[in-house]
Amino acid sequence: MKYFLTFLTVMLLIVALATTATAADSQRGLINKATVVDEVVQAERPQQDDVGQRTVYPLARTKGAAMSGDFTIGVTGADYETFAQALTALKTNGMSGDVNLLVQADYNAVALGETFPITFYGDIPGSGTYKITVKPKTGETAIISGNHSSQLVRIDSISNVYFDGNNGTSNFNLTIINTGTIGTSGRSVLVVGGAQYIEFKNMRFRSAARSTVWRNVEVSGSNRENGGVKDCSFDNCLFYDNGEGIPEAHLYVSGWPTDPTVRVSVKNSKLYNFNGLGTFHGAAIMLRFSVENFTAENNEIYNEYSPTATETGFSGIWIGGSTDRIKNIILKNNIIRDLTSTVTGVIVRGIHITGPTTSTAGIAPENFTIDGNTISNIKAPGAVPLGIRVENSGLNFTISNNNISDIGGGGLQPTGIRVALSTASIHPTKNFRIFGNTIDNIHNSSATASWTIGIHVWFADSVYVYKNKISNISSSEARKNNVGIGCWGAAGKTFYYQFANNFISLPAASSIRSDFYAVGILDYSETPNIVDYYYNSVYIGGTNFDHTETSNAYDRWVSNTSNVKNNIFY
Predict the structure, then answer these.
(1) 3-state secondary structure of 174
(2) Angle (CA) 405 281 333, round 5°
(3) Helix ranges (DSSP H) in 267-327
(4) Rounded to two decimals, what is the model's pTM?
(5) pLDDT (tens digit, 9 = 90+) per residue, 239-251?
(6) Is 486 left (phi over 0), alpha (psi -120 to 50) or beta?
(7) CA–CA separation, 79 and 308 (whole Å)
(8) What is the distance of C-alpha 214 from the center of its chain?
(9) For residue 186, what are the contacts with CB-CB under 8 A and spacing of at least 6?
(10) CB 459 within 8 A of CB 490
(11) Parallel, antiparallel, or unpaired: how do β-strands 55-56 and 47-48 relate?
(12) pLDDT of 553
């Protein structure tokens, strides 16, 4: 009996120690023990929500201590095999401090049975106070790869989520890639539902998003949850195709009418390989519907190829919406280059901003700063290639210190900067400051188009154009009007324009063709518009120039009362 009691005591002690070890393991969610995986971390399989967009992680059957510190995701020696296991543990245990999820090089989402989309949701206790950071394990390069028709990673109704691709020694060591071809590859990342304080640094985002879901990365308001996203930033990131197809848009930002998306920024990043082959106009950066306080700064935007097929065209940055306000936007020091098409009739533009035209379609875009950008090699045969365009409506714009060159490619009316109010718009195009821009080599090789223009202002009000340098506006085919600055004022309007201290130099006719028409300043402002031309210097050079036609430093095309004073025309 004595020996039996001793044996029973030892067995009870072993069971107690095993139970204690299992509970301790469950606090960190260790997955190298089958009992922990089956009984604790994955008590139930993750499920989709009612619309199949968000993964809902179940509570584990056993709750451990609140989590903080580093946790690895992968295979060899990792704390968790999948994000599903890690997020289940976070949801169950909560957070007592910042949590770092370190992705190992041997993490393979598909092989390990990851459930997509990987969802960071606001039901994690402590997530509003502490940070969740996802980054590669030190010294390793990791990839979150899989195929999902909507999105691979979803950040929804949560605060303080950070992704950083720096592995301790170099950047871009964490990639999120939605694989698959056009029509099957959705977004790499979606930020939605009132998420706030979301940050991406040193990351790679890759997708072939097209068709229904046509954005690589989307930051979007939602009427289902908490409205617009707040305080979301992308710094030193790479956005590009997935190698199987080309997306229509890389970064898409939108809000919700009652709660706009605000304070989103993309800086120091590269966005390349995009095309409008599908439902929507292609763009590296696209803003639509209720966005405020957005900044794009120090980015490089380009295509590595010339699309041989496209339907709706593409722009480096495309901003506009048929509803709701877009305001307080900064586009600064971006390089937009090599956007060319070989398809006739396709629109290609560096920066394109469009406002609504009808009374039921919201109000004009407002408070824009477009400063210090370099835009070059924009080509659109048979269409209208433009460096910067603001159309339909706009209010309070500063377009300054941009360098725009090599716009043309056989396009119709290639133009450096165009500000145009739609004749159908009831919203204003008003209060524009266009200054300090350098515009060079705007060229037209179309046999039919009749205009090539440096700066074109059309039916706008309170527009001030000054201290710009415009040169080499040229055509090489049919007789063209090559204009440094053109002002079109709508009949019956009392709009005000001022053009001052601009320098315009147009090339010699003999170097182009004998019937080349050059007009330094073309005044098409009809009465009773008020237009002042002061202190401009216009040079039209070359021998054998045909001055008997319409080649003039200043040319008034209609009867008006414009003030032309103290200019130098030669």
Answers:
(1) strand
(2) 40
(3) none
(4) 0.88
(5) 999 988 888 899 9
(6) beta
(7) 48
(8) 13
(9) 148, 149, 150, 151, 152, 178, 207, 209, 213
(10) yes
(11) antiparallel
(12) 87
